[in-house]
């Protein structure tokens, strides 16, 4: 779909020109395959993840931006975090129920950096073992139960 392609090219240009602090997109790779982007994220200073580097993979369907991208952490260093499963799936409402076409890759990256930065304790979600064993390969096919952080 041409409108999807135009939107992705525009977002790629914006993300490479004005990335959130600690975020870097592999422009050459993304340009070669607009459907899959690799984005590196560095933990912010003075947080539990300071100095750590992580890799996100964004996968876009032809329905983007009307459907959310599939976003997962990949590689050997997946953050241990209450909203990130050990298989790299991220429990973040804007990637599912709260997605809107007004959001962008840049907004998703900013939300993920913010989520990492506000973490108080490195631990997996309480249902990590069951989820990883039973989940769909695509996190967008998951029915998330968002955990209450106030408990």
From TrEMBL:
GO biological process, one term: protein ubiquitination
Full protein name: N-terminal E2 ubiquitin-conjugating enzyme
PANTHER family reported in the protein's UniProt record: UBIQUITIN-CONJUGATING ENZYME E2
Species of origin: Steinernema carpocapsae (Entomopathogenic nematode)
Record key words, sorted: Transferase, Ubl conjugation pathway
An example Gene Ontology molecular-function term: ubiquitin conjugating enzyme activity
One Pfam family hit: UQ_con
Record has rRNA processing as a keyword: no
Ranges where the UBC core domain occurs: 3-151
């Amino acid at each position: 779909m041409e409108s999807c392609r135009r939107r992705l090219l525009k977002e790629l240009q914006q993300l490479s020109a004005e990335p959130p602090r600690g975020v870097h997109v592999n422009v050459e790779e993304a340009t070669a395959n607009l459907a899959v982007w690799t984005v590196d994220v560095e933990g912010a200073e003075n947080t539990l993840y300071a100095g750590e580097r992580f890799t996100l993979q964004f996968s876009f369907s032809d329905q983007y931006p009307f459907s959310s991208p599939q976003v997962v952490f990949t590689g050997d260093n997946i953050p241990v975090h209450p909203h990130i499963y050990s298989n790299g799936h991220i429990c973040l409402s804007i990637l599912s129920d709260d997605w809107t076409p007004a959001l962008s890759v840049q907004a998703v990256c900013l939300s993920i950096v913010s989520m990492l930065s506000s973490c108080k304790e490195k631990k997996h979600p309480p249902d990590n073992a069951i989820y990883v064993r039973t989940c769909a390969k695509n996190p967008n096919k998951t029915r998330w139960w968002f955990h209450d952080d106030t408990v």
